[in-house]
Amino acid sequence: MIPVIGAAAAILSCSPLPAAPDLSHPPDYAVVARIALSGGLPYFRKDLGETLAANWKPASPGGIGGSSGQEVFARWLDLYGWVDLLCSGEASVTKRWLSRHLAAGTGGTAPPGKPLQVTVLQPGSAVSIRHDDLQHRVTEQIAGDPAMLATVVKGLVAQPFTPRNGPLLGRLDPAFVAETVSDPGFLRRWGALFSENDFSPKVLETLQSIWKSDPAAWREFQSLALAVSVVTDQPPPAFWPHRQVVPSSVPRSRQGPVQVFGAWKDAWKDACRGGNLRNDLRRMEPSDLKFVVDAPLETSEFETVRNNPTLAKLTPPQAFASIRYDKGRIGRGVYVWPWGRYTLASIRKQGGICVDQAYYAATAGKALGIPTLFFAGVGREGGHAWVGYWKGPGDWDLGVGRDPDLHYQRGEGLDPQGWTPFTDRDLEMMTRHAGNGAALASARGDLVMARNFRSLGDADGEGRALQSALAVAPDNPALWDALEDWMVRTGASVGERKAHHERAIRRFSRYSDLKSAHQAALARLSAEAGETARSEKISRRIADENRKSRSDLSADAAARLILSRADAGDNDGALAEFDRQLRLQGRDGGGDFFYRVTSPLASRFLARGRPDLARKVLARSFKALAPARGSLIGRDYRKLWKEAGGAG
């Protein structure tokens, strides 16, 4: 048996403190459970963290031989990662999470000491992954105002929730903590699932509530409990399930997380008695199950599918095709659901357009225990919606209802774990990483060590752990972000940060999204260094490289070039760059160019009292992009044209 560690032993006996643990053997989980019941977990965390730091070895530059890749050491890291979170202060955890949900507004240039204009990034928005002084100021400004902090947290966290001071451990029953620290399967699943986007105080509160409601079911359906907990810590966006239905028409559920867990558990029990679930919820990973339990709908919606023998046999592609396409609505320009309650039965009866077909197929799939994702994208003729669904571990079909002829280069949905935008390419990368589970687990362990070194005040050790993680899993984009964060905190020069992004650009040369993200960061750093010409050159390169294959990325880069000039009052420069990008991107730019460049620029000119410039932008864009008559883009062009005072 491994001796109880350091000061934690003093809680259990009056004997002298024993030696540090033997990390060559797995943890004695029963002993750790007794420590948790006794209240000694904070001491255990300190002693274990120091022991791990003293014994950890990084992977070689080729990603071989690190301690985190060794099975026994990895078990200790799983345990430490969980215990470290439980012993963390709620205030610091909240501030770290909050920093991803705040952004500086137009007041971002305010001098130090002056308040900044702050934008709160609501559910459904991309989180802010910035590691500079401006982001730190924004976070401190909100965190330092108790009334404002309470308001922001209330709007971002699922209610009811009451903030507390002290360690997260103070929220939890020692018996629940003892159960978790003594279960290596739970520790592994938690380590693989937990994300910086999770609001851990609420997640822990929900996990414990599910456990208290039915400990036996919690153990049997542990992955389900985890999935429900990370999906329900934050509310879905106000526009869920999509923007083409009035939210009050959606039959939203008022169930709490415990009831959601119970409903899915009962659905599985019914399936065992001849019901209709396609997958065993007990054996799926939480990272897949979250795409089953993420529809906050009345249980009757799911039962509509499960209790109908015909509907229960349909695959997601068949469910999509089963909904009659309503061409009449398109002809009348009725893009928002016009038939009252937005139920599956009503969609079957009335038919629908692509968003309704995709929503129906995605929801019907979830009802049967199939992970699904609703995707929307923009092509040459405007927007479209389709579905992705899980066929088995690491195997997704991302093209149900997607029309290859209309140039939909990227689909965007929502990751219910934080309710942030999530693309089909993100899912492809996640699936690819899952295929190399050993490397992924080793890198995850190195990240635990990085946090451990940081808590010990060892910045060099933290950097070595992050470099080790990158050596093991260099295609994991989150590791590059984590290393940049460390570089900023440790005072790396602008040149060193540029070199970091240049290495990432080379690494992700085959992945347009990731490459362009690091190119954009490089452009921003160059602009901050006063290298305006180089910054613009990089942005133009992004636009040029992606014109044919990724018009969305090309349009985003063009927008940065054009709108920065417009915001600086350089209307002539903005128009000149607009004309240049319009010539380059032409009709291939399609909906992406209109919605990401033309519309924002015209709207800015309108807001500043220059409808003449707005009309100029719209007329030139309409001629170049030539949207089809009656298309969604064409209708939106005409709407803006009228707002700008255009005739005809």
List the helices and strands and how they pair.
Blueprint: H1 6-12, H2 29-38, H3 41-55, H4 71-86, H5 90-98, E1 102-104, E2 118-120, H6 133-143, H7 146-156, H8 174-181, H9 184-193, H10 200-213, H11 215-220, H12 222-231, H13 257-272, H14 286-289, H15 299-306, H16 309-312, H17 316-322, H18 327-332, H19 344-350, H20 354-367, E3 372-379, E4 382-392, E5 395-400, E6 412-415, E7 420-423, H21 424-434, H22 437-455, H23 459-472, H24 477-489, H25 494-507, H26 512-528, H27 532-545, H28 551-567, H29 571-585, H30 590-607, H31 611-625, H32 632-643
Antiparallel strand pairs: 1-2, 3-4, 4-5, 6-7
Helix pairs in contact: 2-8, 3-4, 4-9, 4-22, 10-12, 12-13, 15-20, 17-20, 22-23, 23-24, 24-25, 25-26, 26-27, 27-28, 28-29, 28-30, 29-31, 30-31, 30-32, 31-32
Characterization of the model:
This protein is mostly helical. Among the domains are: 91-156, no CATH class; 247-417, Roll (C8orf32 fold), CATH 3.10.620; 546-648, Serine Threonine Protein Phosphatase 5, Tetratricopeptide repeat, CATH 1.25.40. 57% of the residues lie in helices and 6% in strands. The chain contains 32 helices and seven strands. β3 (372-379) and β4 (382-392) form a beta hairpin. α3 runs antiparallel to α4 (71-86), α23 packs antiparallel against α24 (477-489) and α28 packs parallel to α30 (590-607). The longest helix is centred in the last third of the chain and has 19 residues, at 437-455. 43% of the residues are buried.
